[in-house]
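User: Predict the full complex structure for these chains.
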Amino acid sequence: MDEEKVFKDPVHQYIYVQDRLIWNLIDTKEFQRLRRIRQLGTTYFTFHGAEHSRFSHSLGVYEITRKIISRFERNQYIEWPKEERLISLVAALLHDVGHGPFSHSIEKVLNTNHEEWSKSLILGETEINSFLRQIDSTFPSRVVDVINKKYEKPIVMDLISSQLDADRMDYLLRDAYYTGVNYGFYDLERILRVLRPYQGRLVVKESGMHSVEDYLMSRYQMYWQVYFHPVTRSGEILLRKIFLRAKNLFEEGYTFSTLFPPIVRLFQGQLHVDDYLILDEPMFFTLFYFWSQEKDQILADLTERFLHRRLFQYIDFNPNDQSKLEAILEFFHKNNIDPTYYLELDSPSDLSYDIYRPGDKKEMSPIYLLNRQGETIEISTKSDIIAVITGKRKTEHKIFFPEDLLKEKSILSQFQLLTR
Amino acid sequence: MDEEKVFKDPVHQYIYVQDRLIWNLIDTKEFQRLRRIRQLGTTYFTFHGAEHSRFSHSLGVYEITRKIISRFERNQYIEWPKEERLISLVAALLHDVGHGPFSHSIEKVLNTNHEEWSKSLILGETEINSFLRQIDSTFPSRVVDVINKKYEKPIVMDLISSQLDADRMDYLLRDAYYTGVNYGFYDLERILRVLRPYQGRLVVKESGMHSVEDYLMSRYQMYWQVYFHPVTRSGEILLRKIFLRAKNLFEEGYTFSTLFPPIVRLFQGQLHVDDYLILDEPMFFTLFYFWSQEKDQILADLTERFLHRRLFQYIDFNPNDQSKLEAILEFFHKNNIDPTYYLELDSPSDLSYDIYRPGDKKEMSPIYLLNRQGETIEISTKSDIIAVITGKRKTEHKIFFPEDLLKEKSILSQFQLLTR
Amino acid sequence: MDEEKVFKDPVHQYIYVQDRLIWNLIDTKEFQRLRRIRQLGTTYFTFHGAEHSRFSHSLGVYEITRKIISRFERNQYIEWPKEERLISLVAALLHDVGHGPFSHSIEKVLNTNHEEWSKSLILGETEINSFLRQIDSTFPSRVVDVINKKYEKPIVMDLISSQLDADRMDYLLRDAYYTGVNYGFYDLERILRVLRPYQGRLVVKESGMHSVEDYLMSRYQMYWQVYFHPVTRSGEILLRKIFLRAKNLFEEGYTFSTLFPPIVRLFQGQLHVDDYLILDEPMFFTLFYFWSQEKDQILADLTERFLHRRLFQYIDFNPNDQSKLEAILEFFHKNNIDPTYYLELDSPSDLSYDIYRPGDKKEMSPIYLLNRQGETIEISTKSDIIAVITGKRKTEHKIFFPEDLLKEKSILSQFQLLTR
Amino acid sequence: MDEEKVFKDPVHQYIYVQDRLIWNLIDTKEFQRLRRIRQLGTTYFTFHGAEHSRFSHSLGVYEITRKIISRFERNQYIEWPKEERLISLVAALLHDVGHGPFSHSIEKVLNTNHEEWSKSLILGETEINSFLRQIDSTFPSRVVDVINKKYEKPIVMDLISSQLDADRMDYLLRDAYYTGVNYGFYDLERILRVLRPYQGRLVVKESGMHSVEDYLMSRYQMYWQVYFHPVTRSGEILLRKIFLRAKNLFEEGYTFSTLFPPIVRLFQGQLHVDDYLILDEPMFFTLFYFWSQEKDQILADLTERFLHRRLFQYIDFNPNDQSKLEAILEFFHKNNIDPTYYLELDSPSDLSYDIYRPGDKKEMSPIYLLNRQGETIEISTKSDIIAVITGKRKTEHKIFFPEDLLKEKSILSQFQLLTR
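Assistant: Here is the predicted structure of the four-chain assembly.
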């Protein structure tokens, strides 16, 4: 490119684009589609400011990766494999490209998988694929390897998806910025300064330990204050119930008044790449509107609730004491309310969101400190603060259900509603 | 209410709700719908962070109004009519409730009017109306009077819609926050401190003149840097072209493959209040997706462009020199391209966005300073800075058209494309 | 007062003064003197921005206290003893008034005590005393009781000096702001919202637990990143060495070329209240300049080092391995360098700065959460994060000495200098 | 240097040092002395947070210069003379090194000149000089040429001292940060992006015009809201009166109880370079303390006022109406109050602080925009906003005097005191 170009960004001030390929990728239909997928799904029900898209976040992950690599190059660190620059930037930009609307909430119900979709969008007949192939015919599959954590050079994956990667570095700051909470802020510039390429991996200079502590505490707080906020969870539960009902109806042969073709293929498990361009949040909202007028009472009720934010309420639940649960189920049974669609036990730690847990199979290797003697030390052995949150699976149990359905409110006298 | 409730807000930190009525209004379907209307329409094409909704902004206008009134009460200013507190808060919250999707861009084409819709939503059979009537049967119509600037007490309108009102105070800060530009920031707390109720109006203590200068300069900058940014304008033009084409097709009797019922009623000018709940941005985006597959080439092309951000380019235009325009028109004519849908002369100052212009009929009365002698002075007579922007109608002329249609690019050698 | 007055403050935006007494106290000579005492002593040697004074901090503590009480009054909490408002505000404002220059560093050497001086300045013949007596003749001694933690109502002391008091709330934010580090920020407004007066004490609503975690983690980080930073410690050590030398010389009958009268009285332990007004940092710096020209080599050298920031270097020290220490002492002995003035073992946790340690005698009672059942629970029993830092005495051992004195640098080959 | 080093800075996050020479210069006695000179003189009397030093500011000017040059190099602009990098950085760092305490206020009275002192400190026998000579024997004098605006390459001076230089860019942001006002903020990163070296000068890409407008408006606001604030002016006037009195007494042969040797030489006009190291604000404050105990009533009174912030009050003054002035003078005469020391007419625009005024002899050439055709255009011909403040000499006239001296307060009934 003749001159670097910029995007104004509230979190990083500017996103700098210095490669024609990056510019082209941003302009593809598949990447522009990310503007129509919210970064935080139903969190805007809790924090009204959280209306930002995966488009913004993807640019942010790219920018942090660019900054890290640019620093490596400026300081001429010999352990950084220079030839991995472009693939790292591209993988950073595209790491979320396969995400569908509310994907964290409904992938299970719908049996889809955003990593598979990323693969299809990068390897299929897409604009993205055609730009990537201009570099080299193997480039698209190498990008997929990075995103799916199968690339030969671990340091590239360390940049994009690890315990201390550009993805998390961006979303903590960005989600804090848009929700307005203070918990996600940490000193990004300091962390960038203490990262080092070392023996094929990304490590942290020992003197930067406290800034990593601060970053991990930010994550901890964001999980419990924002990502696992029960009102957000309640929105996600409602979404799952909607799709569960719709899919069951579909499989039972129910005739929908409105059912867009891509949704049919989604239910049939035959979604193709072209459909993915339109499988966005606006389509879901429009669908919900039509479904709210379906003759099926349950589907109509659930979608109406979602559109107008009439969420399920929630109460604390102790797994060793089933009495609350039994009381509700009994009431549901007596009143013909189907708990499949109107009740959910929720225990956030089950989610695929992960808190720092070395040893966990699905997880990347731990964060290493590099000391003055050139040794690497796993960070929780040096930091008390990190040690205490390491491998600890904190779980909160709640029961969600629509409080307004309980006509005999006396049932509620036993326990206290927690909704704010 | 037993205890005040809050919403976390990135701009004001917290939005404080102290009245049951306000809480109830926020929970209505009609107000929740504002979550599905972006505050800045197509600005997210230029500033990707500008994805915030009218819901957030409406809470912000309410909060600023609450702060002003709360200060008046704390300082026991006798010129503040205490009985106007609740109506002021409600009007602040609801002032934008009638806005449809992209309303600034397409009201003209579709012959709708958001002020009329506000009226319908407040006076019609809506959840909002039923809560307002609980106060008093005349309350809904009094709220409408404030929003439509016909209320008996000017100070209430000064709070909600004037040159220095809670609406502008919020959107300058909020739009600056979400776009990431610095231009919209000014010292809100300082301005709140220098506002005074005086002889039935809202005035500014003379010592606060410089902070009003700063606020007006923020507005000036935001208009030219953000609101009139040509890429944003280009998105708006595309929207208008889409609806112009669709409406013309509708009137010509064209058979659409997809046309949702509320859209039919919209084209027929028979939209009713219930439709308004679903006339949101998701519905438009979904429609665009289906229209992008219509057999009408023009509609399909325009909607495809919008979805994938393939905007019209733009060049500077001097009204006294028609040569550029003629060259393009000639080319269009020769190549059968219809300028009705593919060309636009745009001169931003024509828009209803207004910069401080005393004397303009549509505009509220000017900002007055209150001096130590108890006299009020129009601010531009004291401030050189404000004097220079007063009544000055700055206009920028541009021609917009899709550069990619010009197969004979030689035509472009005559003038320079301005797109970044 | 006819109208509230404000001070512009970078941390709280504005400091609001609503009582004539507060206004008068700020204007006294004794309070104005705090402008000439830095809040963070020698920290500006490490973080050059940390040049703020105890004056700014004292206003901040006052403002936070004012905000807390104002919220209690607005919400009409019946457990808040309204009559304690003024004494709380005054004690907040004056809590640091007895601090001398660099007092944390040199109180021990000089055998002074800032709490005693606060007492003298409030009870003695001062402007402060005369304004306080206008309220009531017992008012000054009641203010002293609060500052010295002997007041009858614990909730007043909770506000001013406890584990979660206005003092710490202000200094974390302020010191973070002026140093430029991010570690000290936490959500002040959130914490103010969850504080409650309860059974004579200040407690925290249980739902605010995470925000207290965040606040305590900020403190933890600030201690290790800022307050215990070895370069700051090195400055403090140098100060102590200077005064140790000067006092020893004084006691040995050495004739100083320059010795200001208040310093003589300071050495004699006969400082009177009037002297305190001039015992500020400028006086110390000027003295150091003159002492840098004294014929006593050690005093001249130490003061010269302080003025020009030629600090002692430092190395890690393991208390179980005296070899490093012995090597240096041997070298000092051989070269006639007096370790009394040129060597210091430093172990920061010994300092009077305190980290959260329930059970510690000098410490206030712990932070209590108030749950929905009206029970209070000590916070570390609910929070893993807080539990891990509770009562843990983290200590870092270092040896400080002037590296440049070691002409035979070979001695340094044994260990690594840590100076940045 | 083996690795870049950083200083944590609240305004720029980090100051990056990449050259051994810069590191060495920062460590010199002469540069460390700037820690003992406040950046904003008596402004802390008005804005208590403004306690930052010239040391911080000097690092900031260096950092902005470094950023500009680093961008020029990264973009390989051929019009940037690469060999000027180091001299530019050094001149940026040292541009204020000759400033004495409160130099803007008292240079006239004491007949000193900070530009002369910069010269002496750089060319004399100083640590700075010895480091600079290591580069090359002519290097010190070339640095002086840049600072005194006599260097051969105008672009180097454009960087350090022009209408849009690193000096102003830093102080607007820094002074806004420390005072807490919002007026000084503008988009630094945007301005850095639009600067270009062109035909031997520093110019601004035309598309950056609005960001320069915003920067110049920030300056305009900072002058009137902060730098010319009457309380700040009152502090400066008091300082001048003190030194005027002291100097007159000295010349009359008065015997001072306390008069430090460097002050004697200052009064004699025989200050030498060594003295300059100790001529700092602490020395002045200590002197004021001793002078407040002098037998000369006027000197004692004036210094006492300064120490305890008992400033002169002020009233508006219309140069065409001398009546207020005459009334005060008559009262002074009747009561034996000497107006030489107790009265001042002040008209801020007379100060050497300058607002954008092309054509003014002392001023640098104007800011030029560079358009797409490669032409440069003076900015006020394109910008209405800038045109209005160009060359306009706004002046405010006030009379300052100690209101408390007017025992017959009736004199005050004629006019209104303006003190807040």
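Residues 350-358 of chain C have pLDDT under 50 and may be disordered.
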